Amino acid sequence: MKLSLAGALALGVVVSFGTAAYADPPGDPKAVKSEDGKYLDAQGDPTYNVKPDGTVDWYTFSGYRRYHSECHVCHGPNGAGSTYAPALKDSVKRFNYAEFAGIVIGGRPNGTSVMPSFADNKNASCYLNDLYVYLRALSTGAIPAGRPEKKEEKPKAFTEAETACMNAK
């Protein structure tokens, strides 16, 4: 299997932080730091930022878009699960970012079904943070199901990272 740049980076995160057997659950999702429109929790993991008027950060909105283009077919709309695959909005309550990234990039067996690897799918691998923060926001009730009505402007850093990842060989 040829591993994309995003896949290699995500796999490096998993190797650096451990595997599912040793992963700590995610911490408090409260944003304590912001870098170029990305929000991080106290552990340095990606998280969401929802303003009192319901405006979501760009990365949460992007996660909504990516989730509904790549993940909802198996995992159901809004991370609610299906008869085929588990509710990801519940799973991210147990998985920290490194574990989540490892599963998306590496795939894994799940009873009688299999979560395929998305390492070569740039629409998922280039947006791991976005997918995680969207599901994390759903899991805590910070956003309702459905398309977020209001979003922050797209940060320049997002466009630069997206271009670099999508054009990586």
Automatic annotation (TrEMBL):
Residues 145-169 are annotated as: Disordered. SUPFAM superfamilies: Cytochrome c. Residues 147-159 have a biased composition (Basic and acidic residues). Residues 39-139 form the Cytochrome c domain. Residues 1-23 form the signal peptide. InterPro entries: C-typ_cyt_methanol_metab-rel, Cyt_c-like_dom, Cyt_c-like_dom_sf. Gene3D superfamilies: Cytochrome c-like domain (1.10.760.10). The keyword Metal-binding applies. GO terms for molecular function: electron transfer activity; heme binding; metal ion binding. Keywords: Heme, Iron, Metal-binding, Signal. It comes from the Bacteria. NCBIfam families: 4cys_cytochr (TIGR03874). This is C-type cytochrome, methanol metabolism-related.
